[in-house]
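fwd from M.: "can u put these together and see what the complex looks like"

so here's what she sent:
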Amino acid sequence: MYNIRMRQRYKDRCIYLSKIFLAMKLTIVFVLIATLNAMSTGLAQTVSLRLRNTSLEEAFSSIRKQTGYRFIYQAEVLKNTEKVNVELSNVPLKTALDKLVENKPLTYQLHDGTIVIKAAQKHIEKSTSDILQQVFSGTITDRLGEKLSGVTIRNQRTGNSAVSRENGYFELTNVQLNDELVFSLIGHKSYKLRVVDYKVQNIVLLQEDQGLDEVVVVGYGSVAKEELTGSVAQVNMSEVTKAPVASFMEALAGRVAGVQVSAMDGQPGEELNIVIRGAGSLTQNTEPLYVIDGFPMEEFLASSLNPEEIESINMLKDASATAIYGARASNGVVMIQTKKGKEGRPVVTLNSSLGYQEVGNRMEMMSPYEFVKYHAERNPTVTQGRYFQNGRTLETYRDMAGIDWQGQLFQRKPTIINNLAIRGGTANTKYSISGSTYNQEGVVLNTGFKRYQGRVSVDQVISNKLDVGINVNKSLLDAYGVQAATGSESNPTNFLFYNAWGYRPISGRDDLDLEDEDFDPDNITTSEERMNPIVTAENTNRNYATDAFSAVAFINYEIIKGLKWRTTGNYSNRKFVGDVFYNSRTPQGNPHNQNNRRGINGSVRYDERSTWSSESTLTYDKQFKRGNRLNAMAGFSAVSMDQRIFGVAVQNIPNEELDLSGFDEGTPYSSPASITNYTLASFFGRLRYSFRYSKYVVEAVFRSDGSSKFAPGNKWGFFPSGSFAWNMKRESFLKDFAPITVSKLRVSYGHTGNNRVSNFAYLSSLSFPLTNSYSFNNAYPTKGMIPNDLGNYDLRWENTEQIDIGYDVGLWKDRVKFTVDLYQRNARNLLLDAKLPLTTGFESAFRNIGRLRNRGLEMSLNVQHIQTKDFQWSSSVNISFNDNRVVELTDNQTNLFSYTKFVNQYDSSPLYVAQIGQPAAMFYGYIFDGVYQYTDFDSPAPDVYTLKSHIPDNGDPNVQPGDIKYRDLNGDGTVNGFDQTIIGRGMPVHVGGFNNNLTYKGFDLNVFFQWSYGNDIFNANRLFLEGNGLLRTDLNQFASYIDRWSPENPTNSNYRANGQGPLGRFSSRTVEDGSYLRLKTVSLGYELPKHIVNRARISRLRLNLSAQNVLTWTKYSGMDPEVSVRNSILTPGFDYSAYPAARTLVFGLNATF
Amino acid sequence: MKKIAYCLLVVMLTGFVSCKKFLDTTPRDFVSPVTYYETEEHLTFALAGVYDILGTSYLYRTWYISRLGLEADEGCYNPATVTSGPQVYNFSAGDAAIEGFWQALYMGIYRANALLANVDKNEAIDVAVRNRVRGEALFLRAYYYFLLVQNFGGVPLILEPTMSASGNEVPRTPAVQVYNQIIADMETAEELVLPIQELGYGGQVNKSAVRGILARVCLYMAGNPVKDVSKYERVKYWASKVMDDTEANHKLNPDYADVFIKYARDEYDIGESLFEVEFWGNNSGAELETGQVGAWIGITVSAAAAEANPALGVAAGYVNSTKKLYDLYDDGDVRRDWAISNFTYASNGTKAPITSTTAASYYNRKAAKYRREYELVSPKTNNATPINWPILRFSDVLLMYAEAENEINNGPTQSAIDAVNLVRQRAWSSGIKTITVTSGGNDYTAAPTVSFVGGGGEGAQAIASISNGQVQSVTLGFDAVTGLKAGKGYSSEPTVVFSGGGGSGATATASIHRITDADISPSLDKNDFLELIREERSRELCFEALRKPDLIRWGIFEFVMTNMKNQMATDIPGSHLSLAFRNVTSRHVIFPIPSKDMTLNRALEQNPGW
């Protein structure tokens, strides 16, 4: 009995909730459409119809053509309706509609530019019920579900009115069917409702000027945009996903003011870098904190998330927004919500794309003729022996076609993406099941990236006080193939593109076919690993596989009215398995490589990280009279991360055909093992008070974090913030000024922290590496104990103080929206891997030392230019300036030099310097001053040139005409270490993006530009391939080096053959302007007319053609200006053997069933 | 769901209650110094960590032996592409090699300091063990300071382990005080370490090593730049202690080449080799205990040659000899053709004698003391060898003794002369010197076989060449170790016998090298004797990373290098091999303090000229 009753109640509730939901959904639709059509100008209000035995659909379509009104209805509603015969001329729209629905079980609602056709409820036709059921009642809430009191409900027909009570409940008597009720409340949009039945209604009133996207997800909750006091940037997901990408990060570049996203290079599967409001640390990671469905993650793998599943991304930028995440938030917070199920029938969406990618740009190399000509100048003896035998002369090579190594290495390969999702649910149970495959073959032979991924989320309402949910994701990622920008740190010659470009185009001999050789037999020494790049790419067997699992579960419980308890439990597990196998045809395994001490070798590395966390919050929300509102939240969280690393590296593998499975036959030489963990416990709270319908909002946030990473006594950090918002539109002086729809000032100040140090950085440690043993008396080596790290018990949080002033303005019904933010971030007590004098026995130790300041200006502007029935055009542009300055370094140090370590000859020269008062990464080196010309010399005898006494030499006293010239800054007559200076800037002055959306009928076009201005790139490729700085034999050069100095060509652009001067110098010759403007995305879509696709039982079908990286305008001479292969805060913009950026063309299909 | 809710609730509540405990994580991944130095094994491992520095790449694995220019006038760096770096005397204070050298030594000093601070932590460990460990650590720390002070001058003298990340700006201590500390520490160590005969090998710090190195330290202190000439007495004292140690019974290996063959074969000769850096294995396992002795410095073996003859092993051979060094040797001196290659390895792996006698050909010969073909380890790894490096040999002790005697007594004493003669006699050939054809004979249609009969020796081989039926000349065969197959052990001239060849009547006489030819003149004055010592040290100890410091302490470094440049300008004009000599300036008597430390430690002052 009990059960039956329960079930009945439950059923009732289901129906009730589904009604509410339907109402909400419709409201949302209305609001959306209303917003979209807000500016629709002059919709026709009269219609003429001449219809004979026509279906209603056609009738509606005719009205739509004449008036621009859209019709919304479900197909079933019109099923079995009679054909119509009408003849109307220039009648009001309403009249026409009345005529059409006459005697049909239909009603309609007119709403701005939309007409909603609904089935009329059968029972309402009973006129007797009109009298019986004349009380109309319901509850009024706002969008957040908060009950609204004081709402006036007025019956237009009778003039009766009522006011809603404290609990939002209202009753209105003497209501008849088809009466129109108007709900109004100050600060809210009035809402009209036509009475269709007498069921209890839940009415949602929207705040004025507030659209669908106006609830902003912030840390531990969400807030109406109006009440938002901080700087939170919302990413427009529909724009971001216009062109299919592997990771949402790829599409973020240029989209959000203050957020800089950049790729290291184009290697498939490589994670991108994201920096919010400038680098906040010098030596430590500056990634933001990611919060995925409420789950904060410090080491997040962006590519494990399927971009199609993202519902929203919000970037928390200022301290008021981030302080709630305290000690981990000084680099900003990225909040990501995934898509959830929605009430209604199951909706199946299928998105598939097939794309091709190719290299956007390639380097032009010397032809065989120019190649031989150059080497004959450089080393006549060797060239004579290699190229001028058997009657060959330089002329023999003229017009000879050389081997196109680049052409063989690059390929045009497909990317195939499939996404399938089923989402739906009832009022109480909502589910979402989705899966995707992503398969990208890279533009370089035998490289690529794959992802297989699935997600399930279920939300269940248990009672009106309790609901729970779970969201589980699993992703399998695999990046494979040769890594172009990775090589040995000491030898630049084992990088892929050194060989792809530098490999000679001809051998000069008949008996040596270079394409058949695994390496260049004439050029293989300890310092030169000239390996056939094609063979290298084909044979490199590298697989970096990641298996990422995450689960989030939550419980919400409303303890008493307004007081909600929420607990989330999170678990994530990430297993990384990296396999590398180097067979005898790879540079690392080839026995002919003189630096190969390991024979055929390989390694497997296994790295598993498990994180669990639990967060509990209590939120109290109270609406007071006269639009005042209090929102208080307090919470506790605990996080624990465990990491295990194991692996083995094996050398001298005898049977290479067995591949990885032959490891057991080789000799293990390294077996890394590490188990480590950290924990974090936090208390946090937030108090927000909103006066007078958000005219003034004040907010205070605090968080206290305790981390295991610091010594007892230093574990806890406290991070407060305060902020204020003023919605001027609410003031009397703006209230009635129609052009301004939003005018809001935000001010915030607060502290956040950074704890990104190794888990036990405060402790000294010892280690026993096998390589540090010592053999006594020829015995097997005795293990050596060596001190590993110098601990620092005083280590504590890094503290960042940030102030932000922001202003939002919306004009002409938000047709123009503009946001500007000014900020300053001061990072103090930087957690710095500070260099120590080497006399300590250590290179560095973690210290809280140094200060860094970021100041910036961010602006974004959205404009809807044209908004007509058939054609819409809107644009958005954003620009961010960030000025990064080093304020203080280690113990009065004025310079912090950074090295790239890529070849011995250059190892001792720092390429970067962080100087006090300057940005953190400036290029450092010599100023290139052209080439020594004859006029710089005295010639005491023919062919003898001695430098004129007043002209400084370049460090080599025997300078000759055609040699490289550097500027002698200190005027001591020679160029040496004292003449190094700043030669470029690593960070851009401003970055931004410009987006355009155009729609014409079923077509939509998205054109997106992105830029970076003011940053320089060090093109290290040119050190060796434009001037042959290491004097290597038979090394081909870029075609640009054809224009080099010679007695006949006294140019200043390139020095003569052998004119490179002293080795190991970085100069402004190879520092290039890295600014660029990129036409990043062009996407053209066409949505097939519904009546066509509906026949195929598809509710929506969109086809699109999109192109990525279409065009790039830049002065940079390398393959792509978006490059930073040694990326870190201190060493940005370094280009050496970077994987080229691909240009992609994708055909896609989005279907909804 | 309920379960999860309960779990979370429990987690939350326990979290609240036990925050302190929750945050109290313990490292599971590494050992903390706090819990170390508790057992004898701990001390052994910690000590091995101090030794480890000797075999690191900026010390004796690679750089110190071949790329810091320590061979001075004895050799030149070969690859033409290397135009900067200390090996060619073109470098700045920011040079990575100089910095690496400095860093490695201070790492060793830190490790020794940490061990010395903790050696008595557990007094339950046998005091004898602790004393030995203390002695070896003290010696190694002092030795690292010795390498620092001779190359950089006065340096920060740090005798306690670094405890904190701040407060490490230590100023330089004057060289004299650094020397005094080195001597004090070594003298303490001398009492604590084991005698070499007890150890049975020279790879571990022993009494003879400490005494010999003490002699060297005192010798350097007596010379430039400290010039404390009173220390010659101490040189004599410590050298005598080694020479007169009847229990250790130090004596020279009768075969000069065998000294180095033993290093290659990983054999010990505690008579001669007092202290050596141990390298081991071929990297076939997980260890990386190989060096580049024989690879970077050695005879070049191309990959093709090594493939054709796996007994060779790839060797880069970056250090060439100079003609000056070659010319220092007399014909009877067998050290010449061991120290300087008289052949190259052809690509088929065979030895091709060098026949050219142009001046340039002498500069293309390799520093050849360390030869990979004698290694016993197989397979041979490219450019990585198990060949040990000699830090101190007995012949050095003898020469140091002689030099000190000469200085103390203002001229050579008999014992000084005897010591030098001991070194020279060991190096002297006892084979055939010349062969003179006294009659060409008649009717030879082919070259007759030449044999040597009598004279008490053996092993000489010669080839006759004929012309017009007569023997024109007889020349000794090529030998890769001694240069010529002159044989050995001849005490009187053997009879030269011709047989075969179809003719008859050819006769020849042979002269032999006599051990007494090695002896130096007994009537040299102080300066002549010093000059002889300077040359003799080069002949005996070339390519053992001692030449540059020797020249500096004698105060003749720049002079010698300039002379060398002038000679090369004549011998091999414009060659890249003379780059080092063209680049040398007076500042090169000392390395610059690495610029990294100059910026991090403002208490430091840079060396003059840098």
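replying to her w this: Chain A touches chain B through 105 residues (CB under 8 Å).
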